[in-house]
Amino acid sequence: MRKYSLSNSEEILLNTLWQENTPLTVAQLADKITEANWKPNYVDKIVKQLVKKGLIKADGILQDRFYRSHQFVPCLSKDEFLANMLAEQGVNNALFARIAVALFKKDSKQSTPEQDAKLIAELEKMVEEYETQIEEKSTDK
């Protein structure tokens, strides 16, 4: 597992790519990032840093009149990235389960029965997927 440390600017740019969920050029990123008044040159610098860290990659070229621009996409989904960050902090599966239960108890006071049912269904699906992964690992050995 690789350790990632992000600056605030890198985090903003990566979050923008996750939210848009489509390949974007440096100019498109500069337009989309509204919380900061970044020039395309600064965005290009941040993009190069994220490419070097292996967090984003070029995924196509956009032809705009006379110019060609690389389009970039994240290498990891936001969930995968967050899972790596938690693992770096020493959060294992058992601790994560306890955290999930604590969050569920805290939120259950404010949630509706429909929201609770949806959350339970999602958690059951996650458990089934995890059990499938464990079974696949045991049959591979």
Broad shape: elongated
Biggest sheet descriptor: 2 strands, antiparallel
Class by SSE composition: alpha+beta
The percent of residues in helical segments reads 55-70%
Euclidean distance between termini CA atoms: 22 Å
| Unreliable parts | none
Report the strand count.
2
What does this entry show, briefly?
The protein is an alpha+beta fold. The protein contains six helices and two strands; from the N terminus they run H-H-H-E-E-H-H-H. A two-stranded antiparallel ribbon has the order 1-2.
Structural commentary:
Helix content is 62%, strand content 12%. The chain is of the alpha+beta class and 141 residues long. Helix 1 (8-20) packs across helix 3 (40-52) and helix 2 (26-32) crosses helix 3 (40-52). The longest helix is centred in the C-terminal third of the chain and has 28 residues, at 113-140.
SSE topology sketch:
Layout: H1 8-20, H2 26-32, H3 40-52, E1 56-64, E2 67-74, H4 78-88, H5 93-108, H6 113-140
Antiparallel strand pairs: 1-2
Helix pairs in contact: 1-3, 2-3
Features:
141 residues, 2 strands, alpha+beta
